Each structure stands twice: as structure tokens, then as C-alpha cells.
Amino acid sequence: MKVLLVYPYFLTERGKDYDVRPLPIGLHYIGAYLIEAGHEVEILNLHGLGGNLDELRSIFEEREFDCLGVSLFNGNRFGALDCAKIAKEINPNTKVIFGGVGATFLWDFFLRHFDFVDFIVRGEGEETFKELLEAVEKGGDPESFLRIKGLALRDIKGRPVKTQERPFIKDLDALPDPSKYFKFQHVISSRGCPWNCTFCGSPRFWKRRVRFHSPKYFVDQLERLNKKGVNFFYVSDDTFTLNKDRVIDICQEIVKRRLNISWYAISRVNCVDEDIVYWMKRAGCIQISYGVESGSKAIRDFFNKQISDDDIKKAFHITRRFGILPRAYFIYGAPGDGKKSIQESIDLIRDIKPLSMVSYILDLYPGTKLYDNFVKKNRVTDDIWLEPIEDIMYFETDPKMNSDEVLQMGRRLKKAFYSMLPNFIEELEFEEKDELKEHYAAFCARLGFTFTHGDYAQNELIPNKERAAEMLFKKALKWWPNHDAFLGLGMLYQKRREFDNSIEILRQGLKLYDDSEELNICLGINLMNLGQFKDAMAIFKRFPSSPRAKRFYEICASK
């Protein structure tokens, strides 16, 4: 069969949608599984389509497919319904299959309200999807569908029913490696999480069980993708560092194979130590995200987070000391949140010195304990999701809270973090490890450019951004003669019109990186600003294929 797998757009646009823009890794695994079962598969990321139904129709009309598989979170359910409806309008015989976290928890809702949705794959999808296609190919006998585990559908009377639960795949390495067929950056080395946080759907979806790919399977995948040109990865495991020996084996294998890659990972603060972070640094990890959630123990207990202040402080200290960017996640707007608890979060931020922070208002999603409590307490049903909303904010369900107070909590957190960030940069210190010196320099230079050209450069809440960048570039050069640190300082001095200082640092860099187009062009621009056009022309002439060099050469010639 010809199968089109899609990831639909969300209801509202986001200014920064790094976490939801990429294709879910599950689509790649299902795609590979179906390909090896003999099906033709195409995967489309429709996240950026933004509700343009004419363009969506055109995309579907350009393709022939027998089956449409749609990956759902909660916030993209209306995009999923648009995809299903248009696919059926184009070809009523198309089988529409929903899957993913959103579909798993709202299977009854979708089958009751939308007759153009044929099936729901609940939970882990590879085997269920394959068996469903086999049953469709054989003619679609209703009884054959009911024998497929992990499925939801309508019975002969049109009533939504679900079949038996499907056991989890025991050996993840038995799955086809999707990197053989697709190119992607978001990777995963395990499935599941053993903890039971009240705001998260993972405990119910994965039953608090964790299964692992072997280090070889995972690093083989990274290497195959690297050969396809991918050198940066998001490792999307709920807790990558859960098994210490396995993490170190993965990192040592990356180092052994000399894979020139960098990557982000997610961890818990009570699942890292110096050995783990050291090897992650050696293997190219540049950021670890930690769910801190709150500085208030009472609120962390409400989330059933099961971490202490000491756990948090230790994890952030180790991560910073080994030159990995520690990113802190905070949630605000929980019951009991107020001036005192937000101040506790600010005090904790001051102690742990994160170099990146993301804060969210507490939301309620199907499949979480908090959502279940909300449904029981308010005697509502899943039909609330017929409303055009992406989520339900907790404060909207609590008469003791109001939106102005909750929004003020978020503003306080962000203002406090960004105002302290330059101080965190100044206090950066690293472990004395000769083999990590080059890595430390690269870390500082990369972070420095965030303040001059990246997200932080545009952030008005951060004071003294240029000073922070200068500190970082200088810290980098104390550890290693890093190319980007020379360039960053040269550009910074040039911007201040300190042309002599800029020329001096750039020439230091060019002693090591003589062929660097960036360093040479920056030097040439300095010379132009000093009126030394002939010397600048000689530099630009070295790069005849560079449009920038050519443009500056012509300007010099005209002078």
C-alpha cells in the first residue's frame, strides 16, 4: 500500500516552536517498519503550513496514497482533522489512521465526533499499524480489525470500541533503523520514563517502563545520519542519563568512532554525576535540559517531582563545570503559587546559575493525572476539546487564581533570570581537564555569539550583553585558540569602532587560521574603515568566489 504519514500544524502560531516544529521520531520508526513490510511510505512535516487549507489540498492532490497516518499531540488535533477531512474529500476510499499521544488518550472522542477518522492506533504504533494495513489489504473484515491489539475503531453498530492492549516491543533493536530510509535530527535511544509526574502523559502512555536501544544500535544510527550530513542532534529521551553505564558506553563509542557531532539531551537532576557529564562532554554534548519546575518544595511535591534542592544544585554545578550549557525548565501557575514561591524559584535560579531558562504556565493535557483530577472535580467530558483551544491552563480551573497574577509570575521569573545572566557568565569556571580545553573554548565562543547574534542579542531584559559576549570570547581564548572566539572579539571591537584592537586580535587568529574567509573579511573591513583600501583589496582578492569579498573589493576599487 501507499502510505502518507503526516505531522499536522498546531492551532496557534508560536514565536519559538523548537520543541514542536520537528517531526516526532515515532513517524520515522513507523515509516521504516512499514517500508520493510513492503509498503511505500512518504513522511511530510506540515507543521509550518499554518492552516492554509488550499495549500494542504494541493499537497494531497499531488500525491496518490491509500492510507493517511496522522501523528497527534493535543494542540495539533484541528490540523489533524483538516488533513483527514481533505484526504477523504479527495478520495473517500482513503483509510485515515490517527496515532500518537493525543490520539491514544482521546480515541473515543475522535471516533464519536468525526466520521472521517477510521482508526486510532493506541500506544506504541509499529506492530499495530502494520497489522492494520495487512487487514485492510485482505478486504477489511470487521472481525479481523477487532483482533488487532492496540487499536480503536467503530464496531458494526457504529460505536467506538478499543481492542486489547498491545504489549510493548521487548527488543527495541529488533526495529528497523529509520536512518536507513530517512534523514532527521531528533533521535531517541530509549522509550519510557519510570517517574510519575502529575503534569506529564508519559506515565500512562509508557506505563512507567523504560526500554533501551543498545549503544551500538544508537551510535550506528548517529553515524549513518552523520554520513548523510547531519552533525547536530536532539536526543529526545525523557531521561537520557537513566542508566549510567549505558550512557558512558554510548559516549565512548562516539569518541572511538571520531564522530564530529554536537547534541542536546534531557535529564533529571538526580540522574547525573561527574563521570556521566564528563563523557557526555567528550562525546559532543553541548546542552542538558533539566526539569526543575519550581524552587518551592511544596509545588514540586504537588507535581510529584521527587527531587531536592541539593539534587538540583549539584546537577547544575557539575554541568556548568564541564562546559555543558545547563537549561532549566520552570512551571508556574500551580495551586499555591504566589509571591513567596516565585521568590523561592528566583533564589534557586541565583544558586544554580542556569545559562538558559524556559518557563511555562501549568497546562492540563489528556492522559495526565492533573487532567483526570480536573475532569472528576468539574464533571466535564473530553468533549471540551471540541472547542478551538490547544490546552487548558490550570489557573482557568481554579477560582482562587487569576490570569494577571499568573502572568506576573512568569514576568518576574524571566526578568530575574535575564538580569542575573551576565553575572552567571562572569562566574563561569571549568574543571582542569587538558583533554577538554578545546571543548571549553568552543562552548564559550558559541555562547558568546548568542549574545551578539543569537537569541540573547535581541533580548532587552539582558543588561550588558556586549560585555557578557566579550567575557566569553576572552574566556574561550584562555583555554584554546578558538577560531570563532577570535572572530567574535574582532567583530565586537569593530562594532565599537575600536579598529586597532580588532585588527590586532584578528591577526592573532590569522596566524593559526590563515585561510579563514571570515577572519580575513573582518580584517579587510577594519582596514577599509581606516582608509587603507589597497591593503583591504589585497585581502578581498584572495577570495574570488566569495560574493561578500567581491562586493567589498569593488567598493575599495572605487575609492
From TrEMBL:
UniProt TPR repeat ranges: 483-516
| Gene Ontology CC annotation, any one | cytosol
* Domain Radical SAM core, residue spans: 179-396
Q: Which Gene3D superfamilies match?
A: Cobalamin-binding domain, Tetratricopeptide repeat domain, tm_1862 like domain
The answer to whether keyword S-adenosyl-L-methionine applies is yes
GO MF annotations, alphabetized: 4 iron, 4 sulfur cluster binding; catalytic activity; cobalamin binding; metal ion binding
Domain B12-binding residue range list: 6-143
- The answer, when asked if Transmembrane is one of the entry's keywords, is no
Q: Which residues cross the membrane?
A: none
Cofactor requirement: [4Fe-4S] cluster
**Any idea which UniProt keywords this protein has?**
Iron, Iron-sulfur, Metal-binding, S-adenosyl-L-methionine, TPR repeat
Protein name, entry field: Radical SAM domain protein
Species of origin: Dissulfuribacter thermophilus
